[in-house]
């Protein structure tokens, strides 16, 4: 909203300083500051309100150290995160941008599904919460919305690099970097194209096109590429959303990991939406996607601010209201900037946590069928509980997982040049 206000003031009244709102970097900085303030200042009041409403977590007895002390800790703290994401985005982003609209829909959609699950657990006293099939249906519904929008919307396009007269930009000043229109015509083709291509890590001068998977259809196969693209979007959103949900098992783990992933995706969005950086890094240029940096700045600020209260010992849990939304936001964001194939690296913590559950359950069922008695690979799943059972304090587990997350983030960024 403020973007449009200050743009109007700059154009019609030439007010000094109003033009600064045209810069993505400035609005991103304002978004992260605002989200931090919202989560820190209002978070305390929301926690007090949850206490008054007796919205306490019911903790199952898993025989883990320090588990009983968590009984009664307020849950549904995801409201703090969602508020700290949505308000700065509405204030500083260009709300008519298709990518921003998509991220707002994702945040609200999964936030509502998570809230329904928490509501059933807390107020209906049903420990199982929302049935798993309904969660998955909600995730599939969002996947369809995201997939259809990214495939059919006329503003979701990419621009191919000019091959005849490639310009190597070695020295640019800050004005050139901020105003991506200056070199767009020189570096890229005039016409934007619809495409289902995405970035392949570690491979130079090549992108993967989902349409190639149905090339066997024959001529005109590209017009049917949505049959592959949309199911892939559904799969990615469902997997990452559940991964974040599973990771939210000990204080600060999902929050801190999400902040690391979000900061990395923000960098990738900035370079993907900037002609100069995209040309230098030899990656796909995606018009209008730079606006996503404002959203992700709010996302990171919200996670860091929430961590103030969620770090060990947690004063509040995010619940499914927050965890489902965090994973879905990360997945949708990565797909929007054509970096979803980097998710197994960047979201390695989520991936391993998810995998540990799948391995544990599958192996237990297999051995029970074969030997008549179920056996386990891990002492407990997800993986962070295995380490708790092994005697590690949860704060040490969280810190080490964060370190691994930072390492994976660095590797993800390095893939832009290591090809």
Topology:
Elements: H1 2-13, H2 24-52, H3 78-92, H4 98-122, H5 132-152, H6 174-178, H7 184-187, E1 197-199, E2 207-209, H8 226-247, H9 253-272, H10 275-281, H11 292-310, H12 319-336, H13 343-346, H14 348-371, H15 383-389, H16 394-414
Antiparallel strand pairs: 1-2
List keywords for this structure.
419 residues, mainly alpha, two-stranded antiparallel sheet, 16 helices, 2 strands
The biggest beta sheet, please? 2 strands, antiparallel
Describe the global form. globular
Q: Please give the order of strands in the largest beta sheet.
A: 1-2
Number of domains: 1
Query: What is the radius of gyration computed over CA atoms, rounded to a whole number of angstroms?
Result: 22 Å
Can you describe what's shown?
With 419 residues, this protein is an all-alpha fold. It has one domain (26-414). The chain has 16 helices and two strands. It has a two-stranded antiparallel ribbon with strand order 1-2. Strand 1 (197-199) and strand 2 (207-209) form a beta hairpin. The chain is globular, with a radius of gyration of 22 Å. It starts with a helix and ends in a 5-residue tail after the last helix. Residues 164-180 have low confidence and may be disordered.
Brief digest:
The chain has helices at 2-13, 24-52, 78-92, 98-122, 132-152, 174-178, 184-187, 226-247, 253-272, 275-281, 292-310, 319-336, 343-346, 348-371, 383-389, 394-414, and strands at 197-199, 207-209.
